[in-house]
Amino acid sequence: MPLSDEEQRLLEQMERALVEEDPKFASTLRGTRFARATRFRLVVSGVAFVVGVVLLMSGVVLGAGAAVQAVLGVVGFVVMLASATLGLNAWHHRQASSEQEDREAADADGGQSGLSLIQGGKDSRKAKPGKGRTKRSSGGSFMQRMEDRWQRRRGDNGY
């Protein structure tokens, strides 16, 4: 039985009040539908993958003509590939949404989660002293970098 206009308006008013009063709780409630849909997609993709395996194997087991075996094998493989792709995509979105919820929770706490990002990588590496190397940018072509590397090796070995 659908809600009347007055009931719908009251429900929307209560939702807005909840979001204003406790946004973290409201986002948690909103996330349950998304989690359910993602879980459903994962289950469906798992079932479809099993169906693809059954199709693939049935072409071999039935011993029908070569054309039927080939068609069943290709169809089974395509079903398996499509279901695996959709399942991995749903899994990726599930992880991304949980990371986003963690970030939102950290923002709601004022960012005091106790964890921080430490910058690193190639830019933070220092040249080793005593080797005569200087820190260079990684610009230039591949061949230029290989020639520089070759020249350094020849210089280090005393040639």
Automatic annotation (TrEMBL):
Compositionally biased tracts (Basic and acidic residues): 145-159
Which Pfam families is this protein grouped with?
DUF3040 (PF11239)
Q: Record's superkingdom? A: Bacteria
Q: Where are the transmembrane segments?
A: 40-64, 70-91
Q: Which UniProt keywords apply?
A: Membrane, Transmembrane, Transmembrane helix
| Protein biosynthesis is among the record's keywords | no
Has the keyword Membrane been applied to this entry? yes
Q: Which InterPro entries match?
A: DUF3040
- Chain residue ranges for the region called Disordered: 92-159
Query: Which residue ranges have biased composition labelled Basic residues?
Result: 125-136
The name of this protein is Membrane protein
Q: Tell me which species this is from.
A: Marmoricola endophyticus
